[in-house]
Amino acid sequence: MRSWLFTFFILSVIAGLVGFTNLASKMAQFSGNIFLVSAVLCGLTLVFYFFKKNYLLLSWMFIFLAVAVISGVFAYTNLAESMVYISKMSFYLFLALFILTLMIRKIRKRT
Q1: How is 11-78 classified by DSSP, letter by letter?
Q2: Do the Cβ atoms of 90 and 15 come closer than 8 Å?
Q3: Residues 6+ apart with CB under 8 A from 13
Q4: pLDDT at residue 1, rounded to an integer
Q5: Can you give the C-alpha Rg of the chain in angstroms?
Q6: What string of DSSP letters covers 3-19?
Q7: Whose CA is closest to 74, among 13, 10, 23, 40?
Q8: Mean pLDDT, 10 residues at a time, over the chain (111 residues)?
Q9: Shortest CA distance to 78 belongs to which of 34, 8, 31, 111?
């Protein structure tokens, strides 16, 4: 029971930080920067691959491409706004579960 209490407390703190601060918009801006850097690195490794024909460079190109696609989705969609709403709802849910487990723990100690 103690581990659930601690888990719900930590989850509510994390969800509260993401939901009630400006963290999601900062993450979207950071994802935009990561997108630009990884897209440039993807292009550079592709150019170097054509000159050297090293398959290791091709694998790095695919890694940079995957990072660019994932960070581009986070940066240029409304995912950050959705994440704020989901985080606020999660905060209230985990706070309620924390209070519920705290009450259950107190009741179990009495009996």
Answers
A1: HHHHHHHHHHSSHHHHHHHHHHHHHHHHHHHHHHHHHHHHHH--HHHHHHHHHHHHHHHHHHHHHHST
A2: yes
A3: none
A4: 53
A5: 22
A6: HHHHHHHHHHHHHHHHH
A7: 23
A8: 75 80 77 88 87 81 88 80 80 87 84 71
A9: 31
Joined tokens for residue 97: 């579960």
Q: Which of 17, 7, 61, 13 is nearest to 39 (CA)?
A: 61
Q: What CA–CA distances, in Å, run from 11 to 6, 17, 91?
A: 9, 10, 7
